[in-house]
Amino acid sequence: MKNLTARETQSILVENRLDGQGKPGFAFRNPSSAIFYNWHAHPCHQITYARRGTTQIEGPDGHHLLPTAHAIWIPAKTRHRTMIRNLDGVSIYFDPAYFPQDHTGHIQTFPLTAMLQEMLLHTLRWQPGSVEHTPIARSFFQTLGMLCMEQMHAKPDRLFTLPRATHPSIVRAMEAALASPGQANLPLALHHAGMSERSFRRHFQEETGMTWQDWIAQARLFHAANLLAEGQRVTDVAACAGYASLSAFAKAFAKLMGMPPVHFRHLQM
After folding, report:
1. Cα–Cα distance, 269 to 257 (Å, whole number)
2. What is the pLDDT of residues 188-244, one digit of tens each?
3. Degrees, nearest 5: CA angle 176-73-107
4. Rounded to whole angstroms, how far apart are CA atoms 80 and 172?
5. How far apart are CA 190 and CA 177, in angstroms?
């Protein structure tokens, strides 16, 4: 994976005209190679659709997973960094002046209907600067924005989100767990946090709104989704994600992703 510096990231934004308003919007074909963009922000709202592959985005409130057949919303001027793995997808940038005013103010992932998936791909016909004076394009982007907002409002809250913490001890435990989710456990988390189990559980719940067990279970499944998107075998992924039972892994994965891991892996091919 290529890790970009802040300067390299900004240079790519300028080169691809992603640093402008683009009235009322424009599309950008995401690179398929593995790449890690440094912290940055856009003057436009961004919606990225993953037709295949997975992406992880880190924002002010935590880590977000973008799995196949979903999209992620990033409000304008929200600092974030993006890790792309074998993504076949498209990013659409909307000028805030032309977007519905009832949009949500935080990053979130949401499912897409088949119609919306095709509409998001259709935006590739318009490049930056080519939409403002094209009536059908203006109408298309405005309609697309309203339909995406409808989907966002209908989905469960905090879908595919790992909340972050601010307490230094909890942050240390989280960072250690995310470095190797399959091997993470409560004793290791307590060691990195330097806290008693009672204090750790209390602070963790207060900081994230989740229990440690629920948080690390979701972190493991995020990790599993990335490995499956790379084409690794389901049995190998289950073990790497810390599951001793393949059936338990399949059940947990299907509950989060809405499909069994075999089906998810097949979508990447």
Report:
1. 17
2. 999 999 999 999 999 999 999 999 999 999 999 999 998 998 889 999 999 999 999
3. 40
4. 20
5. 11
